[in-house]
Amino acid sequence: MHKRFIGCLLVLVGFIGSAQVKPYDLKVEYLNNPEGVDVEEPRFFWKLTSNEPGQFQRAYQLLVASSKENLDKNIGDTFDSKKVNSSETIQIIYKGKSLAPASQYYWKVKVWDKDGTPTWSETATFSTGFFQKEDWKGAQWIAWKPQSEWEKEWWERKDIESTALQFQLPSLFGSSMSMFERYHFHHQNPYDASPLLRKPFKVNKKVKQAKAYISGLGYYELFINGKRIGTQVLDPGWTDYRKTLLYATHDITEYVESGENLAGVMLGRGNYGQLAYDHWGFYKKDGYIGQPKLMCRIKLEYEDGTEDNVVSDLSWKITGGPIIYDGPHMGEIYDATKEIKDWNMPQFDDSSWETVKPSPHPGGKLVSQMCQPIRVTKTFQPLNIKRKGSYGQWIDTGTNSAGWIRLRLKNLKRGQQVTIYYGEHLDPTSSGQPGRLQQMAYIGKGEEEEFAECHFSYKGYRYVQVKGYKTAITKDDVEVKYVHSDVPLVGTFESSDKMVNAVHQICRKSLIFNLHSIVTDCPNREKNGWLGDAVTGLEFGMANYDLAALMTKFTRDIFDTQSPEGALSPIAPSNNYRKGKSTLWSSAGVHIPWYMYQYYGDMRLFEVYWENMMRWVEYSWENNNSKEKDGMFSEIYNDWVPPYDSTYRGGGKPGGNEVIASMNFYLVLKRLAFMADKLGKKKDAKQLKQQVKRIHAGIQKWAFDEEKIEYAGLKPFDEFLPVVNILALNYEIVPEKYRAQLEKKVLDNIVKEKDYHLWGGIFSIHSAFEYLPKNGYADMMHKVVVNEEWPSFGWMIKEGATTLPEGYKFTSSDMHHFMGAVDNFFYRHVVGINVDDRTPGFKQIILKPNFIAGMDFAKASYNSIHGEIKAEWKKKANDTYEYLGVIPANCEAKLVLPNKVVKLVSGKFSVKVSM
User: Fold this and answer.
1) DSSP letter string over 354-412?
2) Are strands 259-268 and 459-467 parallel, antiparallel or unpaired?
3) What is the phi/psi pair of residue 711, to 5°?
4) C-alpha angle with apex 316: 314 to 319, nearest 5 degrees?
5) Greatest CA separation found in the chain?
6) Which of 276-285, 423-432, 468-477 reaches the highest mean pLDDT?
7) Structure confidence by residue, pLDDT tens digits, 728-765
8) Which among 868, 166, 104 is positioned nearest to 490, based on CA atoms?
9) In which region does residue 879 sit, left (phi positive, over 0), alpha (psi from -120 to 50) or beta (all else)?
10) Out of 69, 481, 532, 718, which residue is the most buried by the measure of CB atoms under 10 Å away?
């Protein structure tokens, strides 16, 4: 299966134009011009561009100023790094004066190129948030009802619901109930509507700058003088509100007027007061449940140097709004008859409104939401619309996605009820729908034209069914909206193989539609942050999207699940769900920081959470390691959704769970030992290296069959188990004397026994598509991908998949990203863009392509933290290829070909290869 290399010809392509280096894409904490930075020593990043091959940065000078005027004069009154002889452009730590809260800063960088020629960047900015409680200037949590009254009513309703079967079907979140049935279940005392809050304020001076700092739980929408502030939706992001609370910072300068002004806020429950019963304990009394509440400070800075502050206090007014029922899972009801015209305008008379009540602190630390918010990222018209008699009208959006539709409704009668059902399967009200029933309901106000659209819930769906509305819906009446964390696309892939392209697209789409401030398992049913999904899905996610800021946030969510003893939950956020029961899933607490280190050169997550990681390791050894079989770890999960799930009926998973958990923990310990050395933690490094040897000995003793030369589970199974053997190879567990023989057994299992099928689940996919192509079997793995017979990715495409199903079937969720690790194969091993483990962050690039026999070309780009890398190969003739691309300025690459390694400097390159 190996190709024979004969020769190559390298051509470096020159440029015409300026040769010097120019800094661009300036970032603070991974974000462009961020608002509300609350990191006391933030990190700075920039990229470099040049028209001359081989250019690099010899030195830099970073300036941070408290005013643009100072910066324009090259005065860094806050921080002046002076000239630093370094080629580093990432993870540059601020070492200046203490940053002031709620303040604006300006910065730029001068770089010297390889010839000593200096060039300044453009000016970038960032503003700070709050560093201590006092920075909120007396703002307090406010809500609608007195806390004791709200609690009494809430738990009375929950006691009633606990006796009703329809409320006790947690995976289905209410089974067959419509939104109106849910709302009227407590017809005499329904749940409170989403509240509207308002606060007037006067401005009698010329405003220099105005900022709003706001946390509205569970979700908020902010208005200034009737104008909706920001483009974010479903904000702030989900956290364990007992541990962490997020606030956002908005520049509202252009919305503040001279004279009378009005701040208006609409609140929704979100995940703070989930109405759904669930498997995972969020609804329980020990969970984080509360009524919608607000914390807000508006800072008005005037031209004369003075300031005013408008804060959330007991002077605000409040009443119920038109959203009379909302929950992130079941959906929401918008009653347009309850709209209050001009409620968020200064002239509105709020004398009939109630005053707010003080609300208890949710418990968590208020921190700035330092990641991209959830937004509507794309809007388009549906593919098709059909009517089915009295059953309503069906809308086919053409693809699975996360979000909602905006539906124009014409000539509704006042009080007319319309229900919009969302589903992945053709009939959104069918019993097999994931997350059944996903809904949005609308009550008409009786106007010629009205619009139904979600505010505080989102859906995972392709098809929409509209009931209670007889007027024919046209495509012009429907806007399909993608809704997810607005992370930038940084990777592209394309090849001559249409099947491979389709697989790449369903992987990419599955990942982005599962980003909603956390990494969810699916956007339809659970919407939970399952950590096994993150372990196997986020490497390919980082190749496609800039996840640095979002994963910094999500890592905090993971360690917010930690018990004092060190146990972690398998989901994040969590309410003590199965805490400490899975090292396999909770290993995301190490693997995600490791991916961050590899992709972005980020060591801070290891620094910040090192004690947490070590406590988790100690807890796992004490509570998960077998007392009888040292090195075998108890585990509640396994290689999720392998084909055995459809074919094996022996109960549980083939081979049991312990071996895969132990192998994964071996990899965790190796990565932690590596980082301990990098961080200079000598005592921990020694301990971890001893543990690596200990668990390796346990795996060899209890899981390796020396006669068969294969690894097996502790539970008898009469077939070769690809997963544990592929993991053993990929994690470098296999002793060298057995490696070739075991590798052959894996190959024979895939090719001969299973006819080019990988008989494994998410961990098998993650390792197989890494180890096998890296070791000469890329052509074979290409055949595995495009195989159209079940179980395979090719079969999914043939069956019409637009996103990745949960396993090799369409009977569960159709939008899980964890099998998308196959996408690593396309970027890393077909086109060949790889990180150098010794120099993370793609400053030193490894290019190692595989010229696939069944393909004519393949190309990819990756806009790394150092700049955009491009690579492409084309078949020119039989056994002759051209490999070409671009290496960013200040970077180098090593092109690895069979029997030859070529060093490349920055700039364009072209290599002709004869095989």
Assistant:
1) EEPEE----SSEEEE--SPPEEEEEEE--SEEEE-GGG-EEEEEEEEEEEEEEEEEESP
2) unpaired
3) -95, 145
4) 115
5) 87
6) 468-477
7) 999 999 999 999 999 999 999 999 999 999 999 999 99
8) 868
9) left
10) 532
